[in-house]
Amino acid sequence: MKKQPRFLPLLLIIGLFIFVLVPFVPLILSSLSFGWRWPDVFPQGWSLRAWEYVVNDVRTWQAVGISLWIALIVTFVNFLLALPAANALVRYPVRGRWLFEAIIFAPIIIPPFISVMGVHLSFLRFGLTETVLGVVLAHIAPTLPYMFRAVMVSYQTLSVDWEDQARMLGAGAVPRFFHVVLPHLLPGILAGASLSVLISLSQYLITFIIGAGQVVTLPILLFPFISGGDPAIASAYSLLYAAIAIMALVGMDAALKRYYQMSRVPQQEKGVKP
Question: What are the C-alpha distances in Å from 209 to residues 125, 129, 230, 243?
Fold first, then answer.
């Protein structure tokens, strides 16, 4: 059996580093530029004008707050919807299972513009346009499939025997869920939540149509500068958006690790007792 070359992992790390970080270099240079015309390799001048505009503009932090608030609510609602749906489709012989899965995964296949126009007409009748609630409900469609798929895969690896053992020991439905089911599902829930947050944060078309310009998220604030405004400010907003997305992912990962650390402490204390 041939040994794996020692330098191969290092090459993979370097390649991943280049693949992830190199695209940010033009954004950083553009956000600090004062005039950058083609075909110049570097900007003609440097300035913090774009960052001063982004940081000092009140709309920036309002948009960040609304974006995160909508993404968190959407993720929580997706969790409440995906958990029972995945449990039912995995553990029970549901007739027409393929139809239910096709309906849930349809937003991934159907172009957003087609679906959002129908949603917009319905929301107009119910008075949900130009509201945060309407935007939240509209964001559920493109984000729910990812949460559902992640939870469904976790349920497929969860043996029913584990719950049966807890039931035989006298555990009720609620203790079984929190001590047996939920710890096993948490990695899948975190993966689905990460995708749900990222996709919700990146929604422009749905937010623009349903929010009608009254619900201003970060993509709504960013798009005018990309489409023909100031490239330096657009680059600064793009970097801010990327930083928020990364911090959200790191925060969820840290929360999961903290949960596992706290769950191990009582077990370790029990093992120390004579």
Answer: 15, 8, 24, 26
For residue 164, pLDDT over 70 is answered with: yes
Which of 172, 166, 189 has its CA nearest to residue 255? 189
To the nearest 10 degrees (0 to 180), the angle between helices 231-272 and 218-228 is: 150
Give me 153's structure tokens.
């895969």
Of 232, 223, 249, whose CA–CA distance to 35 is shortest?
A: 232
Give dist(CA 92, CA 105) in Å, integer.
20
Between CA 33 and CA 38 the distance in angstroms is: 13
* Phi, then psi, of 46 in degrees rounded to 5: -125, 145
Q: Region of 96 please: left (phi>0), alpha (psi -120 to 50) or beta.
A: left
At 17-75, the pLDDT tens digits run 777 788 888 888 888 888 777 777 778 888 888 899 888 989 899 999 999 999 999 99
SS3 of 45-113: the string is CECCHHHHHHHHCHHHHHHHHHHHHHHHHHHHHHHHHHHHHHHHHHHCCCCCHHHHHHHHHHHHHCCHH
